[in-house]
Amino acid sequence: MIATAWRVLGVGFSLLVVLTAGLLAGAEPGRSSFLNSSIDGLTLGFAVRTDDLTVLLLAVVGVVATCVQVYSLGYLHERPASYHALVALFTAAMVTVVVADSLFLLLIGWEVMGACSYLLIGHYWERRDARSGAVKAFLMTRLGDVGFLFGIFVLGVGAGTFRISELDPAELSSGVLTTGTLLLLVGVVGKSAQVPLQTWLPDAMPGPSPVSALIHAATMVAAGVFLIARLYDLFAASATTLTVLAIVASVTMLFAALCAMAAVEVKRVLAWSTVSQLAIMFAGLSLGTSDGRHAALFHLVTHAAFKGLLFLCAGVLLHQIGSAAFVVLRRYTRRGRLRKALPVTFATMTVGLAALAGVPGFAGFFSKDTVVEAAWHHAQDGSGLGWVVLVSVCLTAALTAFYCLRLWLWVFFRTPALAGGIGAFEDDDPMADLDEPDTSKLRDAPWVMLSPLVLLAIASVVLGYADGVHLNWVVGLVTTVLVLLGALPAYSLWSRGADPRPVVLEREFGVDPLYHRLFAVPARWLARLTVAGDRDVIGAYVRATGRTGTLVSQGFRRMQTGNVQTYLTAAVVGVVAIAVLAGVIGS
User: Fold this and answer.
1) d(Cα 62, Cα 70) in Å, to the nearest integer?
2) What's the CA gap between 53 and 225, in Å, rounded?
3) Which of 214, 223, 269, 485 is the most buried (most CB within 10 A)?
4) Which residues does the UniProt record annotate as the domain NADH:quinone oxidoreductase/Mrp antiporter transmembrane (predicted)?
């Protein structure tokens, strides 16, 4: 099974090399269809396409998936055959979404990804949190996919074709265009964990860390950004849809960044960070301009590198120590031993956090600046939407720098022995009497796990220069100041041993309990009412019918006495009764 998974990756890389070589050689983008049929003028079937966007996403998916598979050889030892098979299927589903030129084929890949994510998140099925996280992810993404399915039919029937390359916004009425794109946006919101369907992604963290890297960096959550980029002409033609997208993205990026500021587990911080960074990409797409689309895709590529790197680094912490929670790590971090015991992990995670925070010179700095610059140009044209996006992205940049530095300091550096925060140690600390952990036995992960980290760390730097350095120095200066404004409070609080976790942030604004009261509790009562109705109403009729039949049969059984005189008497009485009844009716 593992060998089959590696063959799938090998075929995928071969396809990527061939397509890249063809496009670099000047080949025209190609399209191919199969299993086509026409019903009353409506074209049905499957189709694939190869263009620059296809090759770009294939490169991202191929590199990250390969790094995850290599890393998993040293990380995961429980049920490896099913794990590697599901990762290969997950990757193939994302590739299907990328190459699809048919809405139906795209839907197949879209749904297979959802099924694979459920199985991979619940890989440690013996853990209750893994099971509940998998179910939550499945239900919330399926909820969004209902709208996605209806959106496909609205656009396909309205255009008379389900071929993506043949969907022309000029041939669709404004009502069909707006309705179809809004319904597709519902599916995108669910898949990419945007408000209000954002809570499943942080709760999916009990899954294996390589799975988290794959989901967050290159496959499932990135599929929503890819879909809008693929159908950008349709989305850009609907001002209503772009406005909704901009509002959702702006709210999500700030909401998720604030939640990341208070999270106390490394993977949960990174999960909320993914939600926030995806919202930045959607904000760029919501501008409706080619610059916004380019900026969103640029940030998608760089984000895949540094977020995949960060999740794999978190996996090393889990693998070597046993937990990625600050509360448990503090026995190691209070002396600042981890950066000495895990030097490669420390160096690569530093690069990843710097790229995520937008530190100048790293890939995240350049890609995030392109989104800010695109929003600035749009705002200068008098667009209120541009100003909303610009302000939101700038505030998010500062918040991102805050939680990145907070995470880096609390995990890798000696925590000050002051009261008031996680990692703060006093004489009455219950852990203070424990023996200092023996870091002489703590070693960095094997190189089968470290080599993907090094590769992704290099990518987290050089990808910023892959697009050419078209830096707007004013924008770069502003974003650098924002990074400093976010980092300085984090350093100040850490140096004083404090950790700001207001109740509203620690509880993540109480969204999960609210959803529980609004949806789970009524659904549970409705289920109980349904069961009661089935048992006490419908079931009562069924039971009464059966009971009546039983009583009637018992009555007939008692009439069978075996006495001939009784039978003759009953027959005579019956004949007389019939005669009397006939006389009465005749008169």
Assistant:
1) 12
2) 12
3) 214
4) 100-380
Query: What integer pLDDT is reported at residue 514 of this predicted model?
Result: 84
Rounded CA-CA distance 180/149 in Å is 10
388 three-state secondary structure: helix
Q: Distance between CA atoms of 408 and 343, rounded to whole angstroms?
A: 14
- Most confident range (mean pLDDT) of 168-177, 531-540, 555-564 is 168-177
C-alpha 172/C-alpha 160 separation (Å) is: 10
Q: Which long-range contacts (CB under 8 A, 24 or more apart) does 21-28 make?
A: 22/50, 23/50, 23/51, 23/52, 23/55
Question: Residue 289: phi, psi to the nearest 5?
Answer: -120, 160
The pLDDT of 160-185, averaged and rounded, is 93
- The residue type of 255 is F
Q: What share of the chain is helix, strand, coil (3-state, %, to 5)?
A: 75, 5, 20
Burial class (CB in 10 A: 0-12, 13-18, 19+), 251: middle
Contact 68, 83 (CB under 8 A): no
Q: Does pLDDT of 421 surpass 50?
A: no
What are the tokens at 292?
A: 């916004």
Residue 484 scores a pLDDT above 90:
yes
**Residue 142: alpha-carbon gap to chain centroid:** 12
Is the sign of the CA dihedral 29, 296, 164, 288 positive or negative? negative
pLDDT tens string 324-333? 555 445 555 5
Place of tokens 């909303």: 388
C-beta separation of 342 from 314 below 8 A: no
- Answer with the residue of higher pLDDT: 525 or 5: 525
Alpha helices in 334-466 (DSSP H): 338-341, 343-357, 363-380, 384-412, 447-466
Separation of alpha carbons 529 and 547, rounded Å: 25
What would the pLDDT profile of 149-171 be if each residue is shown by its tens digit?
999 999 999 988 899 999 999 99
Name which of 132, 269, 275 is nearest 207 in CA terms. Answer: 132
Q: What number of other Cβ atoms are within 10 A of residue 254's Cβ?
A: 19
Q: Which helix (H) or strand (E) holds 33?
A: strand 30-39
pLDDT at 14: 58
Q: Hey, which residues does 521 pair with through a beta bridge?
A: none
Exposure on the CB side of residue 276, measured as CA atoms within 13 A: 31
Quote the CA–CA distance of 414 and 404 in Å, as a whole number: 17
Are 67 and 304 in contact, with CB atoms under 8 Å apart?
no
Q: What is the dihedral of CA 462, 314, 64, 248, to 10 degrees?
A: -90
SS3 (DSSP) at 334: coil
Average pLDDT over every residue of 315-323: 79
Q: Which residues is 163 bridged to in the sheet?
A: 102
Asked whether residue 289 carries a pLDDT value surpassing 90, the answer given is: yes
- Whether the full predicted model's pTM is greater than 0.85, yes or no, is yes
